[in-house]
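Case study B.
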Amino acid sequence: MLDATLSELGNALARRTLSSVELTQHCLERIGRWNGRLNAFITVDAERSLAEARAADARRAAGNAGPLTGIPVAHKDIYCTRGMPTTCGSRMLANFTSPYDAFVIERFARAGCVLLGKTNMDEFAMGSSSERSHFGPVRNPWDLDRVPGGSSGGSAAAVAARLAPAATGTDTGGSIRQPAAFSGVCGLKPTYGTVSRYGMVAFASSLDQGGPMARSAEDLALLMNAMAGHDARDSTSLERAPEDFARERSLDVAGLRIGLPRQYFAPACQAEVLARVREALAWFESRGARLVELDLPNTARAVPVYYVIAPAEASSNLSRFDGVRYGHRARDPLDLFDLYCRSRAEGFGAEVRRRILIGTYVLSHGYYDAYYLQAQKVRRLIANDLEAAFSRCDLIAGPTAPTTAYAIGANAADPVQMYLGDIFTIPASLAGLPALSIPCGFDAAGLPVGLQLVGPHFAESRLLGIAHRYQQATDWHRRVPAQTPL
Amino acid sequence: MEKILLRFPGPAGNIPSCSMSLTAEQIERLARLARLAITAEEREAVRGDLNRILGLIDEMRAVDTAGVEPMAHAVAGGGGAGQRLREDRVTEPDRRAEFLAVAPAVEDGLYLVPRVVE
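Model:
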């Protein structure tokens, strides 16, 4: 049961061979057994989850069930949940309970899903390893001494270890795709504007996008059907007709043009990562897809551009944490200025403080043009490169990350080393393009390798269809981590 | 301990060293602007980290962007598409009590802050 896909679970629930209460209980038992080691969840409320499961079973009995009714879903602790803490992995929000639900939470509630708990993450989603949480590092189920990737590392680890059949994440520069790759699960960052950001704690608003994490591309499509949609409360939410994200599941890969950017197959990548990705591409080629070599000449600028734009937007967004309206408040302030400065210094961890300071610098008088405006222009060049590439190919493929999961602590001393690991995920974020990561094999140490597929705007269903065809022929996505056996 | 060494070649073949370096005084000024207290002991470490990050960022400063339109948003279709203005109409109910309930210090329905005016 724990290893089943969402559609298998949905079928069992529909046939009444399984109840949502039984399924939820299984997940809660599994969390009880493994979370002490993985630290994937920050908050679990078994009573609430079981009450929602009972309601889902009643809804099914009444004949009002949808395809996801009764399925437990874990949510990244960046989504505001009424009546349950929302910490964003920060001391700043350690005692915060939101007075309202995020759009994504509302959508899953409407679909009849069970809220299984809130997953651990890098503080304010700033990180690529899920080590930088106020609640301690998340561990990778494939090797407990390694990171699961980040910032949605708790969701990735929970799905990989079968603590949850599905989870949500958010992706600003790779925070869904890179942990999916490191943890051997599937993750989709949708086209910017597809999933409402309402109630999603803001990091970098021009880049932030919510998306699903699960064990198959087919599952991602089902989750997208629940998550996507227009929301007037997010000014960047797109008004588009509802779509079925599973509609291209029978797509024929023959004739498909797959673009391979030279810069994504860089010698600096771990050799086994490139080997596994090439093996996956060979499968597509054997089924009639055509591999097209490409140049994305501004690839090396993506990380520098991101580390101007994301911190700039973060410094502005995080100015709301003032120790007055919500969040951590310093004791015995001397005056208002001291209250602000100490509440923020005590509430934010080192990486968040660094990014606020960098953002403040690049936006400050005299530096704005040289840094922020220049970054916005280079961002345009990167987006233009990708747009031009899609005149020559239907999608772009390559490794999701240059390496497999690294040891906890390996990049702790040097923030820039970790930043460079996002080189392949950041370009799609800057351009607002849909991109997913699926497992495509393992390295010699038994760590998962992720294959990234990037498409033009609104190509989600095509990317999911292509990934589904690959997963029908391979079983990398069905492997279970040996450290957390079923 | 394992160390991931990655170097992605840019135009100059490597990440250039910082063209400018933040001084301790600049760090103090930034911290004031950002309303972040930094202790004297933390200052040097923060300065080192920020200078490393600025070294990374410098990579994009030399790119020729003459005539390039800045990209402020990733909304499909570019420009202002999708950045809608809503109607000027009250849509939110009054939830003052709920929002005050999550504040760390309130009195008589007001947020409490240290005395600002003597």
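The helical segments of chain B are 24-33, 40-57, 96-101. The remaining cases will be described in the next quarterly update.
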